[in-house]
């Protein structure tokens, strides 16, 4: 899994690339969820390049959502790959996470600094 993370003035923006599974959840938590706080309560996630998601990844998303809510923020999925969409729909978590499409003419929601995790 590769993570691309950008921390703005009030938002954490992150893109997950590749397999989002138990192997990378601790890294996701450290690089993304732990950065959500009083100054940066909002999280926007680009899942457009997720090839696979397992239940531990879903749990990580729910924990990130809980953290944003604790700080009166919002978690939004900026784009969702077909593989991630199937898992979200099967678990009905697509009802919980708002999805915003990537703007037309752009291939990614943003272009942050890449943080790799093998």
Q: Specify the CATH class.
A: Alpha Beta
Q: Which descriptor suits the 3D outline? A: globular
As for the number of domains, it is: 1
* Largest sheet, spatial ordering of strands: 4-3-2-1-5
Relative helix content: 25-40%
Description:
With 118 residues, this protein is an alpha/beta fold. The protein has a single domain, classed as Transcription Regulator spoIIAA (2-Layer Sandwich), CATH 3.30.750.24. The protein is built from three helices and five strands. The protein has a five-stranded mixed β-sheet with strand order 4-3-2-1-5. The chain is globular and about 35 Å long. 33% of the residues are buried. The C terminus is likely disordered.
Q: What brief labels describe this structure?
A:
single chain; 118 residues; alpha/beta; Transcription Regulator spoIIAA; globular; disordered C terminus
